[in-house]
Write a sequence for this structure.
């Protein structure tokens, strides 16, 4: 509940910052447009300069808004990441929930890394190469985690099978006396070894 409230407050703050930024740039742009309308004695060169300022301000406004949106997304992913880390601390390693949270954590880390790479001021080709490397890294980490999960499931299944057969062997020994020469016990031991 506290996390939801914090998220709501943060989102409201981000929206207010966005609106303030828009208002600021829109006022500057409107002032320049009014200048074009009211100052009739401007030379062609001066009009072109004012128009260039308007275009530059609009471009700058869009870039700043995109940066603000990107920052808000990164903050939200970061908060989600912290919530997952807290849950991971309380969940047993062997559980399916553990692996699902780990996969989600990796996906969030990848999203943060990709967003950071997109924000870098580098050539587009280098940016794409960085994104590819990030995807490969997190793909390998995800594959390793899925393999670990599969191995853990197999280990648990083997333990369950072994326990089942050990119980049957013990029941058979108790029912027939523990002389160790019972063919039924040997048959169960062989089945248990085959299943593993």
């Amino acid at each position: 509940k506290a996390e939801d409230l914090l998220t709501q407050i943060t989102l409201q703050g981000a929206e207010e910052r966005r609106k303030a930024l828009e208002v600021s740039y829109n006022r500057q742009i409107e002032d320049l447009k009014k200048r074009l309308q009211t100052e009739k004695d401007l030379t062609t060169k001066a009009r072109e300069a004012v128009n260039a300022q308007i275009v530059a301000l609009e471009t700058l406004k869009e870039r700043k808004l995109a940066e603000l949106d990107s920052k808000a997304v990164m903050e939200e992913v970061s908060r989600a990441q912290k919530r997952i880390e807290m849950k991971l601390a309380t969940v047993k390693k062997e559980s399916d929930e553990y692996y699902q949270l780990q996969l989600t954590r990796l996906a969030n880390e990848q999203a943060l890394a990709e967003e950071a790479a997109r924000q870098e001021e580098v050539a587009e080709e280098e940016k794409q190469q960085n994104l590819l490397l990030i995807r490969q890294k997190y793909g390998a980490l995800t594959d390793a985690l899925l393999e670990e999960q599969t191995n853990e499931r197999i280990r648990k299944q083997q333990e369950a099978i072994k326990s089942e057969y050990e119980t049957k062997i013990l029941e058979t020994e108790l029912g027939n006396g523990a002389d160790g020469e019972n063919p039924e016990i040997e048959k169960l031991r062989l089945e248990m070894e085959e299943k593993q």
